[in-house]
Design a protein that fits this description.
CATH class: Alpha Beta
Oligomer: single chain
Distance between the termini: 6 Å
Largest sheet: 5 strands, mixed
Number of domains: 1
Radius of gyration: 17 Å
Number of helices: 5
Order of helices and strands: HEEHHEEEEEEEEHH
Low-confidence stretches: none
Strand order of the largest sheet: 1-4-7-8-9
């Protein structure tokens, strides 16, 4: 079960098994919409039935994740990368919800969700140029694909830190979405690309 790949999921199973009360953080009240959102256009509501985006500004590119967070990520088999990315991974390990962070200044226009055009290309975060299939669900901006939905982000909107070659990231857009499990599983297998996100979305 996908939700068992998180502390929240394990806690829920444990509470059920032993008849214990559970304070589920996912059931807390959601804040009202505000000016920190980001425009999203979903063209395939079957492939993506929910997509939330929030802008975070004022990041310090040289800031590193606290040592305790880096150690927890490492114990979970994940490599610390940068503050923004580490936080998204930590939340995923705690709550089971994969997140993705885009460099706000490298996103052109609204974020979209659609099926890829046959033969479209996307360079993913691992540096591989991928030729997309018409069944692949992609995240886009005005220029084209910027990520394989639920699998891996694109290099063209990657978070840049002090060790990177691009201008340092000071603003990010954080994505929290829900994608069709079958679509994600097929895309991950088609591209032979299994990620921490796809492991959770495809279950």
């Amino acid at each position: 079960r996908g939700y068992c790949l998180s502390m929240r999921g394990v806690a829920r199973e444990t509470a059920t098994a032993y008849g214990l009360p559970l304070r589920d953080p996912a059931l807390l009240d959601v804040p009202a919409p505000n000016a920190y959102g980001y425009p999203v256009q979903i063209s395939d509501p079957i492939g993506c039935d929910r997509f939330t985006a929030r802008t975070v500004t004022g990041l310090q590119p040289e800031a590193r994740s606290p040592i305790w967070m880096q150690r927890r990520l490492q114990k979970a088999g994940m490599r610390p990368i940068s503050l923004a990315v580490d936080i998204t991974n930590y939340v995923m390990l705690e709550l089971g919800q994969p997140l993705h962070a885009y460099d706000r200044n490298r996103v052109d226009g609204p974020i979209g969700v659609r099926r890829a055009a046959q033969g479209e290309k996307l360079t993913t975060l691992d540096g591989t140029v991928r030729v997309l299939d018409a069944e692949d669900l992609v995240i886009t901006d005005n220029r084209g694909p910027i990520g394989l939905a639920g699998v891996m982000g694109g290099a063209n909107t990657e978070i840049a830190d002090a060790d990177g070659e691009h201008a340092l990231t000071t603003e990010v857009v954080i994505e929290a979405a829900h994608f069709d499990a079958i679509s994600i599983a097929r895309t991950a297998r088609r591209h032979k690309l299994s990620s921490e996100a796809s492991k959770r979305f495809e279950r």
